[in-house]
């Protein structure tokens, strides 16, 4: 089954699977009708029609359910999904109790050896010797080692293995001998074989029938490699085996192990030698990528013809095999390393560097690192480490340049001390800071310096002074509060519990202060869009001018705000799980959001314009979307961002922006003319769009509400526009918006 199809099902990319609904596709691939069945099931639609088609082809219920089990087994690869094929194989058995295919499917789905036994016995009665041979070859010895068969069952299985018409039964026969206590027969048979599965040989070694030397001699060299523990040792073992001059290991295998062992010089020599010697190559693109990546790691020039060849391929189309998936992963590694090397070159050549995150090369690296085919790859962590190392060297270079320039520019002492701290020279920074006026900033910097040199009592003293200065000024600074509470924790000191909790509350309230709308809204226009169902709650929020902030229990994604998972292993946490949020979007034309959040196009989409400050204790920021594994690997970075502003990549179509606050369920908004001030959010309604299935009978109500809001609003603000969504004349899969007049005389026919 195509890898891409499995990915499309996994991430619910239904639009890419619509071809399955066409009956012509069912003849193109035997699995497609079954895939159509599971597509309907994933969408929550009835599967009766698809099942009847399957039944008509298969002729009987047992065969139809076996077919669905086979498709499900290939489609749902996660262990947690194995109950899906199991369900269909068990259904098949209800209609055919002696169905060997069903038992074999159940064995593969559950690894229960009893199902293997039943399948083999049924086949033997039917004299299906070729099927038995195939199953003997495919069974996992590990599953049988701990099997709790009766002695009669072991004897029956042994007799089947000894039938000369059966092949590939060696592992199973050795397990039968062991469980029947026929150790001499087992050892004699084991010694007559060249290689035996590691699990089986281990069975006899643990029982004392053979020694360690015999164990190592009787397992294959691939099994020995697995026991070695490191890629370097595995490569050495592969090289020893290759010297025997046998068909295995192949050159491709040797190159793979050399690459995984970081033997990049060997990879280059082996790949070039293979292309000189052989005209036909298995996975030539992979070999060239191994060569290019090895050259990048070694800082060598890239081979032009290899680069030209690998860049001529389309890696980002549909992935139909594991080989194509491997090629894409390696190509992403190649692109990332090449861009890192380009940035390293800039680092060497230039002194006046811009921020690294502003470079297009860096943005490309981050985008490629987040690709789902690279997440979980064994090179992923080393690539992240390479990028982090570059960021640190980049920052040090910027600091050194500023320090060098400071001699001429006569920087303020506090700025100079900050640069020295950035460089890690805390003692030198202390020398400067100790002579300065003890402001909040200076005391905080002194506390950080003492923290880094391990003097926690001095760190606590200065962080407390910084906190007192902050409180007296009326400022709320979460960094100052966190530093004090952390120093309090590390120094072993304590304060009154009520006082401590008041600081924790102040910390959480102040977390929102840095998340301001102007930081990102000006780049995209000031408008944000919110999709609503049409109900009394929506009307109340619209008429009274507020945003409702939802609690974690009210959100649609069960992985939202995962406070417990993020904090359970942390030594020191002052973040509290009492934040609530309201979701907006940069996407003003999303079929999915109209369906999900506006009650299947019967609700509203309101356009809000944010043009100023937010109330105290309220913040707003874009959501970042990460692959689940990438999200897990970065869970310890920027705890509040991980808690509030990260979602799984499946949701990225939403282009979400979040308004959030601590222990508050509403944020009121109004836009007042200068110099009037308000404690509300500086925002206003710009337009209201009703869904294309919005009830005709309710249009007049919305018109009246909009007219009333327009009459009462600030005269300097534009009037609210009322629109209606309709299916596009050019593309019935798309929506268009048309304006609705507020004068009822202009709306005849609506």
Notes on the structure:
The chain has 750 residues and is α+β, with helices and mostly antiparallel strands. Helix content is 55%, strand content 9%. It folds into four domains: 3-218, no CATH class; 241-375; 413-494, Serine Threonine Protein Phosphatase 5, Tetratricopeptide repeat; 527-739, no CATH class. The strands form four sheets. It has a five-stranded mixed beta sheet. Helix 11 (151-161) runs antiparallel to helix 12. The longest helix is centred in the middle third of the chain and has 30 residues, at 380-409. The protein is globular, with a radius of gyration of 34 Å. Mean pLDDT is 86; it is low at 628-637 and 744-750.
How would you describe this structure in keywords?
4 domains, disordered C terminus, 750 residues, alpha+beta, Serine Threonine Protein Phosphatase 5, Tetratricopeptide repeat
